[in-house]
Amino acid sequence: MPEPKKKVRRIGVLTGGGDAPGLNAVIRAVVKAAAACHCEVIGLEDSFDGLLETDRWRRLVPKDVRGILRLGGTILGTANRGNPFLDAVETTTGTKAYSARCVEVFHELKLDALVVIGGDGTLAIAHEFSKRGVPLVGVPKTIDNDIVGTTNTFGFDTAVSFATEAIDRLHVTAEAHHRVIVVEVMGRYAGWIALYSGVAGGADVILIPEIPFDLEKVARRIRDRDHMGARFSIVVVAEGARPVGGKATVLKAAEGATVERLGGVAALVATDLEKLTGKETRSVVLGHLQRGGAPTSFDRILATRFGARAVECLMQGTFDHMVAFHPPDIVAIPLADVVGRTRTVPPDFDVIRTARAMGISLGD
Ligand code: F6P
């Protein structure tokens, strides 16, 4: 007879990868929902590094998460270096395979399950730990909104709101000086942030990784605007955007398990557009400002729903799954269907068609 599943009574929670507004809201929701089910929650520090030693954790009860709903960042710390399945690590108990050590400490801390809050990289690692017998559920986070299987990740709405406000501010100064301003937003290989903030901010040009750009065509759009009497233009460019036949602009190449760092495309686009149009053109990179700040109400609600649903999954014995937003519901989908894939903007997506209908150039 198969052994009955052990009831989950002690949950470890960790945050991995780049931070995103809403991480603390998830932690808070996990702690509160677990307390309602008479479960203990152990907060692990700095992603899976919190499972390398037996002293990198703290018990979290509802009073410990009071007031963190509105805070950006993560009270647990995070890390986005390396791959636990490739690396060996020095611990107080000697040099160990990172992943084996994590499993060992998971048992030493008498944890029954984990809630792993992270992006594609962290969720892929979580799936590997699942295969090694660690019961867990994943919670998708990233400002990039590029995780397969969920229409939204928390953090995205906050990043878009910030970028939209920045574009609003750039509009007035661009107009005053009759300049072109090229604004670079994050998003890695997906154009969600650029597309949404560009449409929300009334950009004239939006360049995304999914649609390689031709700057001659962008310059034509800028000249047309001049002829219409609008002597300024706002170009929103995703950090992963690339010219037709070209490559994305890389600031630092990938090294070992650390992924390449994108950035710098706005400066290149600005230089070329200035040459092509003869108009004074400036560039600005919004960078990590998009990751900081308080989560929007949308992100707080999504993060809270994700956290509560993750605990529900653990109580029901649904492991190796990720909670996901399938409007209007929060569902659980197998991690196996999610990892190793990127959710990019479909070329025929409604917001793309809307942008075109608004006369926005997508550089093609
Ligand atoms: O995945 C979130 C993100 O902010 C990307 O948009 C960006 O390319 C990357 O992380 C930057 O990472 P880091 O903070 O490690 O440079």
Instruction: Give unreliable regions as ranges.
Output: none
Principal-axis shape equals elongated
| SSE order, one letter for each helix or strand | EHEEEEHEHEHEHEHEEEHEHEEH
- Can you give the mean pLDDT? 95
| Cofactors, ions, other ligands | 6-O-phosphono-beta-D-fructofuranose
Approximate strand percentage:
15-25%
Q: Rg to the nearest angstrom?
A: 22 Å
Detailed description of the structure:
With 364 residues, the chain is α/β, with parallel strands linked by helices. It contains 9 helices and 15 strands. The strands form 4 sheets. It has a 7-stranded mixed β-sheet, with helices on both faces. A 4-stranded parallel β-sheet has the order 9-10-8-13, with helices on both faces. Helix 1 links the parallel strand 1 and strand 2. It is elongated and about 70 Å long. It starts with 9 loop residues before the first strand and ends in a 7-residue tail after the last helix. The structure holds 6-O-phosphono-beta-D-fructofuranose. 6-O-phosphono-beta-D-fructofuranose (F6P) binds next to strand 12. 6-O-phosphono-beta-D-fructofuranose binds next to strand 12.
Layout of helices and strands:
Layout: E1 10-15, H1 23-36, E2 40-44, E3 57-60, E4 88-91, E5 94-97, H2 98-108, E6 113-118, H3 120-131, E7 136-140, H4 156-177, E8 180-185, H5 192-200, E9 205-207, H6 215-228, E10 233-238, E11 250-252, E12 261-262, H7 265-277, E13 281-285, H8 297-316, E14 321-326, E15 329-334, H9 350-357
Parallel strand pairs: 1-2, 1-6, 6-7, 7-14, 8-10, 8-13, 9-10
Antiparallel strand pairs: 2-3, 4-5, 11-12, 14-15
Bound molecules: 6-O-phosphono-beta-D-fructofuranose.
6-O-phosphono-beta-D-fructofuranose is lined by residues 18, 80, 119, 142-144, 186-188, 239, 261-262, 291.
